[in-house]
Known about the structure:
- This protein has 198 residues and is mainly α.
- Helices cover 67% and strands 0% of the residues.
- Helix 1 (21-41) packs across helix 2 (47-53), helix 6 (96-112) crosses helix 9 (162-178) and helix 6 (96-112) runs antiparallel to helix 10.
- The protein starts with 20 loop residues before the first helix and ends with a helix.
- Residues 46-65 bind DNA.
Amino acid sequence: MAGPISMETGTARPPERPMRADARRNHERLVGVARTAFAEHGTDASLEDIARRAGLGIGTLYRHFPNRHALMNAVFQDALCSLLDHSRELAGAEAPCRALVDWLGAIVTHAGEYRGLARALMSASQDRTSALTQCHLPLREAGAGLLRRAQESGSVRADVSIDDLLQLTNAIALAAEQSPDDPELAERLLRLTLRGLK
Length: 198
């Protein structure tokens, strides 16, 4: 039986085979080690070191993750799910503008856990071929819903776009990353953002 039809080429694609047990273990080991390495050393941590710490060769890492962004995407899936769940919790909030800013604050907090993540997300928003786009697009959609609700309530200006807000949020996370001696910076910048939205 042929696989699904590709809309781009009109040809049948082979169905995706499930990972063998050893390949799945290697995949999970690499993601776990990468999560720790990114938290300790930032998202530019050595891929060779990640493979070595996982007890695998660099070729195995590249078979699972063809580039750094693909590995980052895998590492951040749990956080992405948490941010998406949070957006659904805030969708019915009584103060839609505050809900939007709270959600943006959660993104800043997440980005702050991994040095270099904010910069990578900023670049991924402009590069549809990046594996990190798989993180960016669901966040964009979730944020657009919160923004639309805030705009419909009249508490946020109509000319504000979700793309601008996400770039601003990543810029706040990047600024906070560059100023570790000022732990209140992100919160102050988010408060300024709230004022600018109204």
